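Hi both,

Apologies for the delay on this - the queue was longer than expected. I finally got the magnesium ion-bound model through. Below you'll find the protein sequence and the ligand SMILES exactly as submitted, and right after that the structure tokens for the full complex including the ligand.
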Amino acid sequence: MNTALTFASRGLSAEALKIKHTWALWLALLAPLSIVGMTFLVFFFKGHLFLKSNSDPWLVWATNNFLATAQLLVPLFLALLTALVNGTEHQSGGWKQLYALPVPRWTVFLNKYLLLLALVILAYGTFWLGMLGGGYLLGWLRPELGFQNFHHVQSISLGAFRILVGSLCIFTLQFCLSFRFKSIALSIGLGILFTLAFLIGSRWEHIGYYPYSWPTFSAAAFQAKGSAWFVPQMWYSLAASGLVFLVGLWDSCRREVR
Amino acid sequence: MKEPLISTHQLHCRYGALEILKDLDLDIPEGSIYGFLGPNGAGKTTTIRLLLGLLKPTAGTIRLFGMELERNRVQVLQRVGALIETPSLYRHLSGRDNLEVMRRMLGLKKSRIDEVLEIVRLRQDAHRPVKQYSLGMCQRLGIALALLPDPELLILDEPTNGLDPSGIREMRELLKDLNQEHGKTIFLSSHLLSEMEKTVTHVGILHQGQLRFQGRIQELQKATQQARTVEVEVGNVLLAKEILLYLGHAVETLDNQRLRVAVQEKEEAAALNQFLVEGGVAVYNLAFSAQSLEEVFLSMTELPAFDSSASLHLQPFLQA
Ligand SMILES: Nc1ncnc2c1ncn2[C@@H]1O[C@H](COP(=O)(O)OP(=O)(O)OP(=O)(O)O)[C@@H](O)[C@H]1O
Ligand SMILES: [Mg+2]
């Protein structure tokens, strides 16, 4: 167990160095900020047109941020980020080097997964802070919108957390795709295809079993009154990503590097 | 006798239906510099990938340091440094950061980076991003990566690829130094025998996935001595052949005017001429020829593997 921890911590710090001077870190910070920033501008300039006076503006603000994000941007962001980080390894021909190192084979997969998971959590953290910060900034700059009169830190934090859990399965799936296949276009292309499939089929009654819908269902719990902390899709997402992770890990251990 | 550092037994490997390696029995003694030679597509890189556990053999066993590779992968690889084909470099990182990635992965001490940069003479350029490196500089960095863990066994796939003549010489000196001063065993692949002739202690010649020769470089040199011949053009081939056979030479008839005769030394040509003339044979032409080591190597790898005349070149006139 101790040696396993040593391998993981060494590997993780090595992986972290590899993303230096790449877009990965910027993407994790800028993608959430750009969503919040865009919504911010809309509220700043046009907020008085669609917010009723004396009503709670936070609900509209959060819903606007959550829904666009969960439906479209999260899957695309995850496809892009995983393809970018695993792509550097494919491009440099680094797999043969990694798998010839005196470390157990599973560490290669695990280290990359953990690094990307950290980036994803960083992105969600940025998103969460941006939403809260943006709301209070609006309350200060445009007091007539009324942001300063209400407080929803808890429910917004929960909302962001729900989407994070709801998107884990997409993350793991996209991770495995980009880990396995050299072509960046393939993993991003499939990501787009799967997302489009969800948007097209969103009225289908069984769409709730489709992984690319899970962030949306998780986000929708924010609006629903009295929803539990965990909506069913979040459980699906956790279970399915655990399964995909194990299959990916198993496959990575018996992979031949040609 | 000590167990070889690397030994493979009846190693087979195939890509799909294509059989790449057949019955490979490698023996790399400890403390040797083993030159693994073969033309393009012979299977050198495939063999190296097998030795590092990157590929699984279809059949056969691989032992390194007396341990079975499959079951002791991590333990074995701890003692190995490798460069496989083109070095795996992160082009957006500097040379030093590339080494740092590897250092962190292996948990080595920091000072080792400067040591290997010094060895491959990249200290000056260590801060530059690798995408600005020339081919030779990338190659040096790849070798630095292989040297980083200070391994007992170095496995280098075409280490001189892309190096300039002085770089090649430096590489030879470096390999000799590592071998003689630091006692490292080196397994390296190459296309060119001439490039490695002066460095290696042992050679293995691979052709179409089969080992055509394996042994000390001196044994290969001995083989070239067997390839010294005199070609004579004479009036009466039958008579000439009789005389030469009587003298105890191996003789091969080339056409109705020419014979090829095996000799030990160049001086024998004069004696041959004298005997033939005294025996009443008109000698029109007489030429001495010797195959260089490179030619012997080429003759082993030019002919298709199933053509038995390939081995005939090695032992030219045994049938006489
Ligand atoms: N990924 C692969 N898939 C299928 N066949 C392959 C693959 N890699 C190599 N081969 C085949 O295996 C054979 C041996 O290739 P290998 O790379 O081992 O040769 P090599 O001796 O290293 O040649 P070179 O001197 O050009 O580096 C070749 O016939 C090649 O076509
Ligand atoms: Mg090769």
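Main takeaway for now: Chain A has one domain: 1-254.

I'll put the files on the shared drive as well.

H.
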